[in-house]
């Protein structure tokens, strides 16, 4: 008399006794009686909605069905031999997609493991899909865990699928008509169904986020690109506008809801760092630090440009990570970035030249993102190249279109220079964007650089200014500081003035290191002079080619700062200004 015992057990649970059932099961039993007024002794058959109702449910869940389809198919391929049926229900519990063995159609339909079956708890009693909808958690409802006698042969395991706004949108369920007795026999089913639900959420988020940045995260580098655990969609200012359940769990506790939160409140990174986390860099290098000292691996996917052209495209390109976001109020950088943005959408080869650490690679990557075309990105570190490695990096000749970033092209070994020229000729779909710390024209002139290669990669030349000539140093300091420290931490006026007077031979690299040290040494929320490390290059003298006017311009005509940069005292600067006939700006 299993059925009788079942009813008795439900009554015991209602009386407050424990019978060894999982709390998810006993809680659901209580709801069935106390909330829905169900009778455990009745064996209600499965409820199947009408054709018209099913069409309506499917129409409303259309997007989720499309996102989930291939996940369902691959899950079914894995479990079909063990006679599992795979169901997708909508958030109301109605089965809107189904994979099962058609040879058992009658049995499946009779048990409700079929299209159109309604597994909502208030109608079907305790079931995996029904309990999952109520609790929002994965659950196995095994045999007589089911409330109604009609389903006590089944073993069902379900996991919730959340949409990118954190709302429960569907339930993925795998069920057996007959199953081995111990509930633990379904542990593997539980892992498979939760992993599949996670992949469906990811597919759904990706499908909805084509026009935005997506950041995918994983604790292990091996799974980052193939099966990440969490993902967020970010708008141009770095605010979260979509997330998967994995991200919710990862960041939960730090904020009541993820929507609208800035990503830098959870991770030590801003939207402008996203190009550094794109796939062209080795996975191990794409580390994202968390404020609690932990770290994850990140994979950023850039917004795909819409097919339309003109103003709309440009407006979208200006979103996060784009070229325009790389400089503050510095006229030269702004002019350069505007030119880069115009050139981005062409196939013109490009050389970005400038001192080390001026941000050439950063611009090159942002330029690739702004191409707005469906091209791959290949990055080649020229210093380490051998002929074999280069051939492998560029891939076989063919129709492939890609941006080819050649970092520090001047360091390409001489025997590889001619080869690169030939490889580019065979691969017209590659658009070279080279960075260089030297004057390549001069290097050709002196016989240090292969002439045909120079002409092969020369199109437009953009010269990135050194930090000491930029007028947006304050903007850069604040921006880099925000990335390293909470909003309250700031530079004292004297620390700012001291930094403004430095020559910055290491450019942004050096500025980053200085701020790293200052943030570490600073005790309160103001970085002051004692927190600043001494300049890496102790001779505070601007290079000779910088004219007095250049130095004064960069220092905003602040004589004290200019004096520090030039390594002389203030009165000497004044004397030189008078002697050279320079007029102070009004
Ligand atoms: N606009 C920017 N805002 C904030 N950080 C930046 C910006 N541009 C560059 N950086 C940071 O400055 C550092 C140096 O940048 P990058 O590697 O692009 O310079 P580079 O000129 O290519 O250097 P090298 O010549 O040594 O290869 C990097 O850590 C980069 O993330």
TrEMBL record:
Keywords: ATP-binding, Nucleotide-binding, Transcription, Transcription regulation, Two-component regulatory system. SUPFAM superfamilies: GAF domain-like, Homeodomain-like, P-loop containing nucleoside triphosphate hydrolases. InterPro entries: AAA_lid_NorR (IPR058031), GAF-like_dom_sf (IPR029016), Homeodomain-like_sf (IPR009057), HTH_Fis (IPR002197), P-loop_NTPase (IPR027417), Sigma_54_int (IPR002078), Sigma_54_int_dom_ATP-bd_1 (IPR025662). The keyword Cytoplasm does not apply. Pfam families: AAA_lid_14, HTH_8, Sigma54_activ_2. It comes from the Bacteria. One of its GO terms (molecular function) is sequence-specific DNA binding. Residues 326-520 form the Sigma-54 factor interaction domain. GO terms for biological process: phosphorelay signal transduction system; regulation of DNA-templated transcription. This is Transcriptional regulator of acetoin/glycerol metabolism.
């Amino acid at each position: 008399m299993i059925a009788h015992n079942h009813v008795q057990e439900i009554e015991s649970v209602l009386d407050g006794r424990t019978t060894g059932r999982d709390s998810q099961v006993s809680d659901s039993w209580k709801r069935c009686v106390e909330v829905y007024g169900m009778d455990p002794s009745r064996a209600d058959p499965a409820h199947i909605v009408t054709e018209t109702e099913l069409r309506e449910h499917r129409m409303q869940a259309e997007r989720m069905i499309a996102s989930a389809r291939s996940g369902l198919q691959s899950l079914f391929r894995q479990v079909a031999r063990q006679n599992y049926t795979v169901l997708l229900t909508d958030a109301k519990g109605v089965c809107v997609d189904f994979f099962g063995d058609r040879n058992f159609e009658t049995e499946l339909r009779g048990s409700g493991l079929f299209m159109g079956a309604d597994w909502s708890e208030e109608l079907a009693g305790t079931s995996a899909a029904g309990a999952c909808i109520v609790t929002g958690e994965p659950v196995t409802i095994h045999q007589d865990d089911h409330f109604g006698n009609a389903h006590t042969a089944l073993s069902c395991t379900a996991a919730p699928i959340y949409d990118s706004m954190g709302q429960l949108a569907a339930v993925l369920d795998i069920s057996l008509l007959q199953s081995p007795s111990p509930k633990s026999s379904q542990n593997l089913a539980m892992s498979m169904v939760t992993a599949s639900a996670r992949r469906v959420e990811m597919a759904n988020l990706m499908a909805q986020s084509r026009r935005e940045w997506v950041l995918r995260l994983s604790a292990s580098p091996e799974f980052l690109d193939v099966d990440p655990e969490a993902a967020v969609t970010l708008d141009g200012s770095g605010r979260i506008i979509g997330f998967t359940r994995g991200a919710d769990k990862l960041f939960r506790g730090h904020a009541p809801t993820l929507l609208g939160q800035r990503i830098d409140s959870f991770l030590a990174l801003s939207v402008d760092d996203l190009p550094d986390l794109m796939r062209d860099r080795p996975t191990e290098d794409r580390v994202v630090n968390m404020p609690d000292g932990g770290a994850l691996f990140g994979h950023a996917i850039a917004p795909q440009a819409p097919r339309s052209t003109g103003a709309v495209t440009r407006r979208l390109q200006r979103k996060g990570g784009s070229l325009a976001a790389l400089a503050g109020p510095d006229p030269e950088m702004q002019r350069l970035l505007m030119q880069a943005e115009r050139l981005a959408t062409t196939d013109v080869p490009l050389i970005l030249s400038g001192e080390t650490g001026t941000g050439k690679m950063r611009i090159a990557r942002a330029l690739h993102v702004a191409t707005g075309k469906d091209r791959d990105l290949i990055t080649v570190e020229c210093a380490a190249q051998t002929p074999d490695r280069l051939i492998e990096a560029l891939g076989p000749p063919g129709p492939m279109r890609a941006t080819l970033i050649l970092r520090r092209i001047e360091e390409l070994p001489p025997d590889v220079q001619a080869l690169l020229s030939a490889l580019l000729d065979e691969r017209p779909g590659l658009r070279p964007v080279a960075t260089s710390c030297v004057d390549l024209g001069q290097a050709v002139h002196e016989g240090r650089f292969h002439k045909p290669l120079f002409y092969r990669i020369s199109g437009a030349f953009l010269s990135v200014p050194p930090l000491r000539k930029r007028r947006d140093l304050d903007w850069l300091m604040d921006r880099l500081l925000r990335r390293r420290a909470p909003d309250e931490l700031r530079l004292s006026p004297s620390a700012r003035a001291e930094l403004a007077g430095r020559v910055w031979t290491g450019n942004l690299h050096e500025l980053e290191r200085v701020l790293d040290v200052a943030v570490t040494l600073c005790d309160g929320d103001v970085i002051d002079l004692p927190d600043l490390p001494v300049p890496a290059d102790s001779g505070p003298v601007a290079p000779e080619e910088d004219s007095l006017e250049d130095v004064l311009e960069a220092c905003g005509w602040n004589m004290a700062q200019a004096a520090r940069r030039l390594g002389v005292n203030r009165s000497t600067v004044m004397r030189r200004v008078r002697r050279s006939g320079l007029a102070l700006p009004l």
